[in-house]
Structures are given as C-alpha cells and as structure tokens.
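anyone seen this seq b4? input:
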Amino acid sequence: MVGWKQMKTMLILASISFSILITGCDMTNKQTESKTIETQMKDVRETAWSSLSPSEKKEVIGTWKEASITKVIANPQKFYLDDRSYEGKELTVVTFRSKKSKILGDISKLVDEKSQKVVGAGFRE
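predicted toks r here
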C-alpha cells in the first residue's frame, strides 16, 4: 500500500512534469508563430522583387531581403494602381533602395498580402 508521503511526492512530480510539458508546447507554438510571420514578410518582399524589371533589379542596392515594408491605404494620388478596386484598401508597400534614388526616388511596389499580388507602384520622378 502507498503511504501519504509517497502519494504526495508522486502528485508533486506529476504536477511538475505536466507544467514542463505545457510550457514546452507553448514555446513551440510561439516559435512556429514567429517563423510564420517572418515567412510571410519574406514572401511579400520576394513577391515585389519578382515583379521588378531586369533594369530595376540592377539599380536596387542590396537584396530583396533588405527591402523595407510599410502599411498604407491605397491612394491613386500617391501610387499608381493597376486595379482601381484596391483604392482605399490597406496594402503593403515594399520599398527597394535605388542607386538612382536622388534622381528618381526609390522603387516601391504595392502588394496585396492576401492574394500575394503586386497591384501597383509608387510614382518616380
């Protein structure tokens, strides 16, 4: 027969084991979530990069991974929109630093993250 002290020790060990198991699962979920967000950001930049012409790619400083990302509301006075149905919607702007930025400005592409489509571009001089 198991005594009270042995039962208490087994309960404590079971509680500790359960806590470690739950904490480990929670950390795994957070790491997976973080990698998913990072992957989505890469995809947006890579999607924008794929839409660049060969001459635009030659003038980019660095790689597609170094592009900056911001959220904007699509406005035809600030961006060229391929599809006017995106006007007023939140989109992601992917901006590539350009060797010609002092003359023309940097290269910016508007991306709809849900569809992973480039739907417009920033105006250049």
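Helices lie at 4-50, 54-59. Residues 4-122 form one domain. kinda curious what u guys think
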